[in-house]
Amino acid sequence: MSGLSTTPGRPTPAAVNAAAASFAALTAKLDYLSAPDIDQVRRAYRFADEAHLGQLRNSGEPYITHPIAVAAQCAEWKLDAQALMAALLHDALEDCGVSKPELIERFGAPVAELVDGLTKLEKLAFNTREENQAESFRKMLLAMARDVRVILIKLADRTHNMRTLGDVPRSKWGRISSETLDIYVPIAHRLGLNSTYRELQDLSFRHLHPWRHGTLNKALSRARGRRRDVIKRVQSEVEAAFAAAGIEVSLDGREKTLYSIYRKMDEKHLSFAQVTDIYGFRIIVSDLITCYTALGVLHQLYKPMPGKFKDYIAIPKINGYQSLHTTLIGPFGTNIEFQMRTEPMHVVAESGVAAHWLYKASQPQGEASQRLGAQWLQSLLDIQHETRDAAEFWDHVKIDLFPDAVYVFTPKSQIMALPRGATVVDFAYAIHSDIGHRTVAGKINGEQVPLRTELRNGDVIEVITAPVSNPNPGWLGFVRTGRARSKIRHHLKTMALTESQDLGEKMLAQALRAEGIERLPPEEEANRGIWERVLRFSGNRNRADLLTDIGLGKRIASIVAKRMVSLLMEAGQKPDVLLMSRERFTAHESVSQGALLIDGSEGSSLQFAPCCHPIPGDEIVGYLGRGEGVVIHTEDCAVAKRLQHRDSERFIAVEWSDEPSRAFETYLLVTVANGKGVLARVAAALTAAEADITHVEMLQESVQDTVDLRFTVAVADRVHLAAVMRSVKRTPSVLRVQRAKPGG
Question: Nearest-CA neighbor of 686 among 654, 734, 638?
C-alpha cells in the first residue's frame, strides 16, 4: 500500500479528535477554491473517511489522517479540486476494496484516473521485489507523463510517510529511506520542487544514518552559535549596501541541508570544519534587471570567489530553475553564497511544476510554467512505446533522473539541455529520432569530431546525416540518454527482423528453384491452403514469421521447400525438370539448393566470419547459424571445415554478386625493418592504393631489427587487395607482405 501499515481496531477518542481537527486544518487551506469545489473535496473526504473506517496508522491515529495530510500538502501547492480529491482517495482503490468504476460514478473519470495512476499493481505475479517495484514505478511514471498531478500527489504522500517514519518498525527504515533517496528525491529535483527535495533528503538521511545525522546536527548547531555574529554582521552590511543603492530587496538567510553537507564531506573526504559554504542568503528583487544590479552591489561589497559565479537566469536548469549564484568572501574569510531572483523565479525554484497551479489564477501567462519538465515527461512516453520490459524501462528512467546537465547550442543558437556525459548521438536523438537514425558525423564548434565525443557547456553542435545511414549497435556503448538508447534498440530490433525476413524470402525462393519451382507462391486466395499447411508443418504463426526464421537459421530453407513442392504437386503444379537440373548442377556440389548471391547490403541478417574475413573473389560457403542468420566463410577456412564435418546439412551455396555494394575488411601482415617513420610510410602506401585502414597493431617483436605490423584494411575485392599488397611491397623498409588470418 502507498501509506504506512494499518491495524484494524477501534479508534481512540484522542485519535477521532485528531481526525476532525485535521480536516478543519485542511478546510482553512482551501480558500483559493470556489465553494462548489470545496463541497466536492468534502464529499471525497467523507467517502475516504467511511472507506478507511476502523483502520489505524502505526501511531494509533485513524488512517484518514494520512490522506488529509497528503491533501494538505497538495493544497500548499494550490492544486485544483480534482487533485485534492485524488489525494484524499489515493489509498481507497488499494486498501479498501473500492473499484475504479465506483470512483468514476461518484467523482468522475479524471479523479478516478489520478487515483488509478497512484495505485500499485497487485493483479500481476512478480518474481522479485525489484520487479514489482519497477513495474509499479513504471505505471506511476506513465500516469505522471499523461498528468503531472499524479507525481505531485505521490510526492506529497511520500513526504508525509517520511515525516511519520518514526512510528514504523525500525527494520523498515533502511528500505523506505533508500527508495526515497533513489527514486523520489531525484524526481522532486527534476521537477523543481526544491523545498520537498530538501525535506525528503533530510528525512531519508535521518532514518538511514541516525547516528551520523545526530552528530552532524550537533556540530552544525555549535557552528551556528559560533558564527551567529558573522551572519548578523553580513546581513546588516548587505541591507545597508542595498539601501544606499536605493534597491528594495527581501533578504533571507539559509543553511545547507545536513544531507548536502554529509555528501560533500563523504565525496571530497572533508572534515566538518573544512566545509566552508554552509551559509547562504537568498535575495528576492522586483524584476530581472535588478537581479544583475544586485550582483554588482554585492561584488562591490565583498570579493567574489573566482569560478563560483553561475547565471541560471540566462541559461535555466532543466527543471526550469532560474537564479544568479555567486560565492563571496565575507568577514573573517567566511565563504557565503548569495542567490538573486525575482518573486516568480522564487515560486518556480521552490515549487517547480507546481508553480503552474500557484500562478494559474493570478497570471494566465503562467502557462509557460506548465511546460517545466514536460519534455522529460514526454520522453517517458516515447520510451514506453518501445520498451515493454519494466526493468529496462526503469534503467532508462534512472539514467534521465539525475539532472546534472550540460547546455549546448544548435547551429541556430537554440539552447538544449542534456545530461552530463551526453554525446553527439544523444544530441541528434534529442532533436528528432529520424535525425538520430541518419547521423553519420558531427561537428562541435565547426570542427568534425567522433560521434562518441562528450559535449561540454557552450558547445555549438552540428549533426551531419545521410539518407541511407542506420544506427550502429556500437552506439549503445556510449549514449547517455534513455531516449537515445531506447530509440537505437527499437530500430535495431525492427531492422534485424526486416533484413532476416528479406534474406529468408530470397533463400526459400532459391531452394524452390533447386526443386524445379520458378518462384515462391504468392500470398493470395488460390494459395492460402498451401501456405496454411506449410505453416502448420513449420510451426509458425504467419508467412512473415516463417521467412524470418529461415533468415535467422531457425528453419532450413531446403526442408521447407521440399514440403511446399509436395503440396504444390498435390495441387497439380509440376516441377520444371530443366530448371531443377540447371540449378542443382551449376551450384556448389555439397549443397542441394540454388546459390545465394551476396553483395554486402544484406545487413545484420548476414555476417562475414571473423575467423577468415572473406572478400569478393574468395571461394565462399554459407553456414546457417542457429538464430544468427547466415555466416559467410572462405571455402578453405579451418573453422568452416570443422562445422561442415559436424553439421553439413546447415551449409548453403553462396556466390559473390558481380557488383558488391561496399568494401570488405581483411588482414594484412607486413614485416618491416625497424626504423624511424616506417609505420607512416606503410600507412601512406595503403592510403595511396585506396585501402581504408580500420585498425593497426604491432605484434610481438621476433628479432630486434624487424617488426610485424598487422593492418585491418577495407578493400573492394581480391584484385584490389593484390594491388594494395604490391603498393606496400614497393615501400622502403618493407621485407614481406601477406594476407593474414586473425590468429596469425
Answer: 734
Beta strands in 141-235 (DSSP E): none
Dihedral Cα 444, 447, 449, 454, nearest 10 deg: -30
Residues 6+ apart with CB under 8 A from 250: 283, 284, 285
- Its CATH class, for the domain covering 374-485, is alpha beta
pLDDT tens readout for residues 587-638: 444 343 456 778 777 666 678 888 888 999 999 988 876 656 678 899 888 8
For the chain, which residues make up each domain, given as ranges? 7-214, 227-369, 374-485, 491-656, 664-740
Q: Give 322: exposed, middle or buried? Use CB within 10 Å, 0-12, 13-18, 19+.
A: buried
Continuous segment of H or E residues that includes residue 38: helix 35-51
CA distance 280 to 272: 17
Which DSSP helix (H) or strand (E) runs through 581? Answer: helix 577-586
User: Within 13 Å of residue 726, how many CA atoms lie on the same side as its CB?
Assistant: 7
What number of helices (H) and strands (E) belong to the chain? 30, 21
Decide: 672 and 733 in contact? Cβ < 8 Å. yes
- Put the strands of the sheet holding 664-673 in their side by side order: 692-698, 706-715, 664-673, 734-740
- Is pTM beyond 0.70? Reply is no
- Determine phi and psi for 728, rounding to 5 degrees: -70, -40
Q: What is the mean pLDDT of residues 5-19?
A: 49
Grid coordinates of 628: 544468427
Query: Are residues 629 and 552 in contact, defined by beta-carbon separation less than 8 angstroms?
Result: yes
In this prediction, residue 34 carries a pLDDT of 85
Residue 603, by phi and psi: left (phi above 0), alpha (psi -120 to 50) or beta? left
Per annotation, catalytic residue among 37, 76, 80, 94: 94
Q: What angle do CA 699, 701, 706 make, to 5 degrees?
A: 110
Q: What average pLDDT does this structure show over 247-267?
A: 81
Q: Could you tell me which of 142, 93, 100, 101 has the C-alpha nearest to residue 120? A: 93
Say which CATH topology domain 227-369 has: Beta Polymerase; domain 2 (3.30.460)
Is 664-740 CATH 3.30.70.260? yes
Pairing of strands 324-329, 303-311: antiparallel
Measure the CA angle with vertex 310, ends 307 and 311; round to 5°.
Answer: 140
Do 605 and 665 touch, CB atoms closer than 8 A?
Answer: no
Q: State the pairing for strand pair 405-409/447-449.
A: unpaired
DSSP conformation class of 180: I
Residue 518 catalytic?
no
**What confidence tens digit (pLDDT) does each residue in 38-88 have?**
888 988 888 888 888 878 877 778 888 888 889 988 888 888 888 899 988
Tens digit of each residue's pLDDT (9 = 90 or more) over 523-532: 777 777 888 8
Q: Strand, coil or helix: what is 666?
A: strand
Alpha-carbon distance of 126 to 442, in angstroms, equals 44
Q: Are 691 and 719 in contact (CB under 8 A)?
A: no
* CA–CA dist 456, 435 (Å, integer): 21
Q: Which residue has 488512517 as its cell numbers?
A: 63
Q: Which helix (H) or strand (E) holds 568?
A: helix 557-570
225 Cβ contact partners less than 8 Å away, ≥ 6 residues apart: none
3-state secondary structure of 181: helix
Q: Which of the following is catalytic: 37, 76, 95, 628?
A: 95
Active site residue 122: no
Which CATH architecture is the domain 7-214 placed in? Orthogonal Bundle (1.10)
